[in-house]
Amino acid sequence: MPPPSSRRLSLQQIVEGQRRAAFVGREAELNLFRANFALPPEDPRHRFVFHVRGNAGVGKTSLVREWRQAAAEFGALTASVDESADSVPDVLAAIAAQFAEQGHPLKALDRLLATYRRALHDAAGRLAADNETAGGAPSAGALAAAQAGLIAAGAIPVVGALAGGIDPAVVARGAGGLRAVFGGRARQQEEARLLAEPVRVLTPAFVAEIDRVADAVPWIALFLDTYERTAPQLDRWLADLLTPGRYGELPANLVLTLAGQRRLDPAHWGDRGRLVADVPLGPFTEAESRQLLNERGVVAERAVREVLRLSGGLPVLVSTLAANPGAAGEANATAVERFLAGESDPARRAAALACALPRRFDEDLVAVAVPQDGPHAVPGLYDWLHELPFVAEPYSGRSRYHAVVRAPMLRLQRTGSPQRWKAAHDRLAEAFAARRDAAAEGIDPERLWAEQPWRRAALDVLYHRLCARPRTALPEALRAGIELCAQRPSRARHWARTLAEAGEDADDAVLREWGRDLLAAITDHGPRPTAALGLLLTRAELTDTDRAAALVARAWDRFRAGELDAALSDHARAIAVDPRSERAHQGRAVILRSLGRYEEALGDLDRAEEIAPSWAWAVRERGETYRRMGRLEEALTVLDRAHALDPSDAVPLGSRGLVRHGLGRHEDALDDFDRAIALWPEYAWALVRRSRVRTVLGDPVGALADLDRAEELNPGLPGTEGERGEVYRATGRHEEAVACYGRALALDPDYAWAHGSRALALVALGRLPEALADLDRALELDPGYGWARAQRERLGAV
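and the corresponding structure tokens:
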């Protein structure tokens, strides 16, 4: 006869084996849990409670199953419950049943649970019978009263369909009826107490039984999954269970695992933190996602990258797409079902999807996303959203969905109804446009991108327009990038990221590529926008006006970097593309002026004013050019006109203050600088020049305070240290002055003015040879430095 075959596996065992074989990733979390069983309970590193938390779909349940298997490998007696056991008696019954299957019945607890169930059934029947109708059949009200009486006594939990569904008056009647049952009809007082206080009666029996079986096994491991749903019923009980002396002494070889979406409630767990290992679970890393895909046979790099892009590393999406890499719609629906599994109201589900559309939202935006006069109107929607586990806390007044939750919600809406997708984004774009326009009130149009409220709203307008109509809105978005690079290049990263996010969320390859390449260009070149502007100039379909604006923006960036020839070339190209670009003429005038080519600069300013006669910027640059040419009276007249054209611009006031200082009108100069700095508190140039005026007016303390503030705004500039030396020299503190000039020259050895000024401080200290050497060096650096030459001749004759 053939040898008897081993017992065949059950269907469930085969399925579980296949599931475990398919489990990948989470090595760190698995190792953390396993390592805990290698530590004796007395070891301070040992943890008695593990709390796994994370958004729906990140694989908490799968990890808990692996942990249970790992615990079994260490010889642990295990039990696992989920939201199907939503009361303490149900949890205890489930644990007892699973322990019995493993050969360790909790007989005393089982007997008590049987008594509890029988008493519960009898009490409900008696209360219902007391309220029978004349026809003899229990009415709906009678049954409700019976339930209410048991709720009032704490015998059954107020969850699910019962929550909020029973009239308080019925609860009062039911409670009174139950007291009558306890008083005269219960078989014994033990049953009455068991019904009235099931947790207080059952828990000590459970603890005693656990303590008994703990002597027969190395470990006991209990797992409570979907804890975000059962915490309202179990949180206080579990915390009390761990409190010494509350229900008895728990065995030291017990390890409890909770798995939910939220952090543990500090009201119950705050003082038990040392017992708990907090294990936040995020999306898969790329390596873990690739491992799962490889296990499922998805190895083609193009398919792998698409799954990585669509899934965001969310395990439920990676797994779904691994089964069919092209089934994005199925994956999105699966993920969204997981996220909203606890919500059955179709209006709330639809509203939750709609509120995923804005990148961040507040109460007003929720009303736009879900119009309250529409079919999906939900009373109290904004407050309800914040009860969802994937909605993050408000950030600057606006909340957001977790990225791995939001992405499949967006894809499901985009593919489900393209028309509704466009209409919703159009509404949101209009709402943000209204905020943008309101934020622009009282702000110089030339500086809008520098203002955070305006910039944030403007980028959200672009985002929603791009999501609704990617190709139509792209030119507007690129034009905005040119303006941003011209006004506030350090903020260009936010603009490029907006394009990239819109490309991803709208699933538009062209837009996604633009965003990716612009982000790379900005990242590779730091705060400079040159590379990003180069992309726009070579690849974008720009109008002549836009191309000229991009060239002017790049020219300014090159000018700030000292690349004067390249800056002049860009301005020339801008003028060739758009001869009527007043900004190109004005920008080239500034560069020519810095090169000492004053007459050519004035020619460009003539052309700029001819094109835009009332443009204050061109007028102020003419006044500054006259000042640098030494034509102070003409400069004063022109700067008066510039200030009249734009009283909110600080720059003409600063230039006029320096002109008045040069004309000996120091009090007027101080007034101009005060007004300029009041308009622009970060105007470091004006602070340094005001320090000169304050020094002349006998206010060295104010002068040094101005220089301190300028140093805070722009640290490490040699001019600031040089001006500080002037203050010290003017007040007779020559040693300190020499030290300041020395620091300025350490920052810029070719700073001719500092050499000349230090010479005077050295003369005052009697160090003539050093003073002459400084003047010689100043003249060597700047042969046209007439003041230094006069001082050299005067001192050489001494």
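(Above: one complete record from the training split.) The longest strand covers residues 254-260.
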